Each structure stands twice: as C-alpha cells, then as structure tokens.
Amino acid sequence: MQPAVLFSLWIGAIASLIGAHVTGAMLVFKLREGHPDVYTKVGSPRAFSRNAEFLWSLKAYEDELGPDLCKLRKVSLAFGCSFVTLVLIFVSIIIKGAFAGV
Asked: Residue ranges per domain, the chain?
C-alpha cells in the first residue's frame, strides 16, 4: 500500500480522536450548565475522560436535551465511530501487507 494512504489514514484517525474529545468535552460542559439533572443521571462524566458510554446513555434523555445538544451528541458519536473505523482500516492494511510480504 502506498505510504500516502497510510499517512492519510493516520492523520484522519488523529483528527477524529481530537474531534471526539473536543465535542465530548463541550457536551459535558453544556450538560453541567444547562441540564444538571441529566448530567447526574448519566453518571456525572468528567469533561476530558475517554469514556464515551455517557453518549449512548444520553439517548434516553433526548427529549429533555433539545436539538442543539442532541446534534452535538451525534457529532461526537460520529467522530468516535470514524476514529474506530480509520484505525481498523489502518491496522488491517498493515496486517495484510505483513502477510503479503510487502
């Protein structure tokens, strides 16, 4: 595989990870300020933790959150899913190259 493709996948994964952390932290801060009851119901997550479980648990409280926080939650989930996808593609290309002798 071309090194440019591997480098692009690596940069994309790093950008997705940063995006997931930034949007997740924004969501936690906005939850703390505007919806403290929902914030405590989902376990009072720390702003800079890598625990994305609270994003899934917020699904039950979409009616209380409003459209802006729901959109931020979906963007954060999209960043997280794209990070995992890009890392899996990167690793699979490396493994395939190792077995092919490239």
From this structure: 3-100
